[in-house]
Amino acid sequence: MNARVAVIGAGIGGLTSAALLAARGADVTVLEKEAWIGGKARRVAVDGVEIDGGPTVFTYRRVFDEIFAACGARLDYHVTVSKADVLARHWWDDAGDHLDLFADTNASIDAVGRFAGADAARGYAAFAAEARRIFEVLEDPFLHGDKASTPLPMMWRMGLSRLPEMLAMRPFDGMWNALGEHFSDPRLRQLFGRYATYCGSSPFKAPATLMLIAHLEARGVWLIEGGIHALAKALGKLAEGQGARVRNGAAVAEVLTANGRTSGVRLTSGEVIPADIVICNGDPSALATGRFGKAAQRAVPAIPPAKRSLSALVWYAHAGTRGAQLTHHNVFFSRDYAREFREIAAGGTPCEPTVYVCAIDRGADHNAPPPAGRERLQIIVNAPANGDVHDYTPEERERCTRAMMATLKRCGLTLEEPLPHQLMTPRDWERLFPATGGALYGRASHGWAASFQRQGPKTRLPGLYCTGGATHPAAGVPMAALSGQLAARVIAKDLASMRKSRPAVTAGGMSTRSATTGSTG
Is residue 325 domain-shared with residue 398, that is, in the same domain? Predict the structure, then answer.
C-alpha cells in the first residue's frame, strides 16, 4: 500500500487504524495534541499516584487478539491480562446484600436466585439467552460489518431466511419494557438496564437491542495490568513496530484539500504534513463544527445537542475505604432510577445518583483482602452533555461530590474525608474533547434507527475518514478498535479501487480520467 496517511488523534481507534495500515505498507503519521496517547484512556496523577483516567472495562478480547495477529504479534506479549471471575458487584442499600455477576453463567443464575428468588433466576436465564441470541445475530453483519445508513443493507447481507432472527433483535421495543418481561424485581431491571449507559444512553429511551451488551460482558471481563492506558500504549508500540510515527504535542488545525480531496493537514504550529488519506480519530462533531477547517466541516453532518450521549462526573481518588467489600468493578444504585434519568434529561445532575466505582488495586481474585491504607479509585456518575453551555462552580462540584458519597454511604461504603481527588465535569471533558459538550460516547443510542445514524468511516470529502468510539459500530474500547479495523479495511479497498482505475475512451473519442483518480498530492 503506497499511500501517505495522517491520523488525527491517538485514541484506540486511531492507533488501531495506524497499526493495520502501516502493516499493509502505508506511510503513517499519528498526530496527537496531548502529551499522552490513548485519548480518553489516559492516566491522572492524584495524591502522588497514577490513576486510570478513562475506560476501565475490557471485554471482547477477540478483537484485540485479531489486531495484534494482523501485525505479526500477540496481545499477551505486550500487556499482562487476567480474566476476572466476578464481572461486577452490585449494591442497593446498607443491609449488606449485594449481587455478583460471574464469568460463569450458571454461577450468575445461582447468585440471582439467592438474591431475589427462583423466579428471578429463571428470568435471568431467559434474559441471558435472549441477550446471547441478539449478539450472535448482530456480531458479524453489524459489529464486524460495513456501516449501513439503514437496516436494509444489513438485512440483505443476512438473508431473508433469517427474518425471524432479525425480528429477535427487537429494534422497535424499548429496553426498559423488555427487561420487565424478564424481571419483576425492580433491582434486577435496574441492574440490566444500566448496560444502556455503556454507550451513553438512557435505558428508558434505548432499544431492547442493547441487551446484547450484557452478553458481551458475560463472555468475559479481563483486567489489564496498568489499565486500558497500558493497552493504548501497546497499540502505539505495535503501530511504531510496523513503521508508523506517533507524534505528541502535534495539534492539527486544518485538513487540507487539493483537486476535491484531502492533501494533508496543517498543524497549529504551521507545519504541513502531506497525506493522501486523513483519518479523524475524534468525535465527528469536531469536524462538523469547523474545528479542522471549512472543507472538513462539510464532510460530516452535525450531531444536534439533543442527540448527544451522556457525559459524566468522574472522580479520580486516592482514599481509604470502609464498609462494603469491593471487587474491581462495583455499582451502587440510586433508589429512583427513572428520576435520575429525568434529571439528566432536564440538564441537571442527579440528586441521588447511581455510582460506579472501579477499585483499581483490587485484582482478579475477588476474595483477596483489601489493600492496606489508601487505594486508587475511579468513580463515575452519569451527567448531561452540556459542558459547552454550562460551567460547574465550586459549589456545584462540592454538591455533586456530597451526593456521590451519600449514595455510597447509604449502600454501605464510606470514603475517607476530606476526599483526596480530582473531579472531571462535562465542562472539563468539553475542553479535552472540543465540540462534544462533554458527551463521551458520540450520539446516544435512542430509538431503533440511532445505531445506523452513527458516523461511519467514509465522509463526504474523498480521502477523509473517521474512526473512534463516536463512530460505527458504537462506543467502548472494543467498539473503538472495531471502528479502527473498519476504517483500515475501507481505506485499503478504496485505494485498491483507485489504483485499478485507468483512462477510458468516451463515445466522442476523448480520453478522460475517472472521477476517482484525482490528484492525491
Answer: yes
